[in-house]
Specification:
The chain contains 5 helices and 15 strands. The longest helix is centred in the N-terminal third of the chain and has 18 residues. The chain is 25% helix and 28% strand. The protein is an alpha+beta fold.
């Protein structure tokens, strides 16, 4: 396809993801990265100096501060990506990079499906966390610019509102939709990182890998 056709497909799916919380696209991550760079989209690497497309590997012996280090092969709790950053990425693109344990689903839950009361959203803005790990020392709230940030792997709750938010999100894991990977079709899962959280079921053995691209989409 031409560049304009691919860009139109990508833009359409991004709009759908921002409306529903997530969507799928049959376009490779390298092509999505190429289009993003051509159109001036801000790409967010996993770590400073790292490749724009990072590889997430299920492991029982991770050493870098991460959900993998804390939870290993156990189920990952609901979270957003890049929660430690002053401005987290708006969109997450995930692609299965191996066929090992493709049956392990990604769990997805929209913030609006967690609690519809205004009290919950008020608490998000008042929930103060301290960032842990290599970015230790920063204080953040769960709400930012109309979106949510939350990662129990790097955010330590400091206030009663923060503990309330953490408990509510943990309890709602059972409500999260199971998105099943189909490696034969090359699907990319596009997640609105501001309005939806994602997690993962437990993995029985190391080796399950996903490739990830994160962007700030203006």
């Amino acid at each position: 396809m031409t560049e304009s056709a691919d860009w139109k497909r990508l833009s359409t799916v991004v709009s759908r993801a921002r409306h529903f919380g997530w969507a799928t696209l049959e376009l490779s991550l390298p092509r999505i990265l190429e289009l993003a760079q051509m159109h001036g989209i801000d790409v967010v690497p996993t770590r400073a100096g790292a490749s724009p497309i990072g590889r997430l590997v299920a492991s029982s012996n991770a050493t870098l501060p991460s959900l993998t280090m804390e939870y290993g092969l156990n189920a990952f709790p609901l979270h957003t990506d890049g929660a430690h950053l002053s401005r987290p990425p708006d969109l997450i693109f995930l692609a299965a990079s191996s066929t090992d344990e493709p049956s392990v689903p990604t769990r997805l839950l929209r913030v609006c499906d967690i609690a519809r009361s205004s009290e919950f959203f008020t608490k998000l803005g008042q929930a103060i966390f301290r960032v842990r790990g290599i970015h230790a020392g920063r204080y953040v709230t769960a709400a930012y610019d109309g979106g949510i940030r939350y990662d129990p792997g790097c955010m330590l709750p400091l206030t009663s509102d923060a503990r309330y938010v953490s408990q509510l999100l943990a309890e709602n894991m059972m409500l999260a939709e199971a998105w099943q990977w189909d490696t034969s079709r090359g699907h990319v899962l596009v997640i609105d990182n501001r309005r939806a959280l994602h997690g993962r079921d437990s993995v029985s053995r190391p080796g399950r890998t996903l490739d990830r691209l994160m962007v700030r989409w203006e």
